[in-house]
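Researcher: Next entry: Phosphotransferase enzyme family protein (Amniculicola lignicola CBS 123094).
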Amino acid sequence: MPILYQPLPTSARINIFFQAPGHEIITPSQVEASKLSMIVTGASGNFARISPSMLVKYGTHVSLFEAKTLLFLAERTSIPIPKLYAAYAYGPLDRDVSDYGSVYDTYIFMEFIEGETLEKAWETCTPAEKKQISVQLKEYMTELRGIPDEGYIGAVDFGIVTDVILEWSTPSRGPFPDEDAFNAAIADAFVAESKGHVGTYIRGMLNEHKHSIVFAHGDLRPPNIMIKDGHVEAIIDWEMAGWYPEYWDFAKAFYLEHLTFSTDWATYLLDILTPYYYEEMMYSKLMRVLW
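Model: Predicted structure:
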């Protein structure tokens, strides 16, 4: 997501969004010098552990909306999430942004969560532990959905739609005033990427049902759930979170997981999240073109 500042400085500088009391800003050069280990390097961002208790997520595709979401949820919910220490944009940098990146790098410094991902832990969990984890997750997702609707679809602080469904295919990413406007943007993106006269069908499919707007994680998969001693230690990776139609987390969880049903995770997931079978099939059809 492009992060624009007016006027642009003539040389790269740190533009601080958040700094926790007592926390000193760690510069990009200090990050490079202090890495204890790289955890992930990918298109959505780089993750490095820079102290026993601190993780930094950084890169051209990292969004300050994730930092805003962590602050928002810490104030509004009891959901276990990483504590935010600092966040800033660094730039502008001389780079090609043809990949829809930015001339800025975003750095988010957060708590390092001890434990292992549910993806790694699930098959070694006992039935009792699986039940306990699913009960906890259901409580957290119910709490998340209980956050009052703020009258739009998009990220916190009246932000754009950060979900991948509109990342590549449309100049309009909101925020959208309602589901009709959101569906129209998705349909326009789909038609633009498709061949043939598909618009009427896609618009009809999207508008078949009306939904409440709730707060969604947007990427509730086992790699984003941290487990320790048979309990949920934290839910991480909130970069696509925001207000969406009520089916969003269910559709995303099943689509993004590319579930093969080779384990019983999907069975528990059907209890954690309210099922929306039609909408999940719709989302999968849309994403075959839009991603």
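Model: Note for the record: The mean pLDDT is 91.
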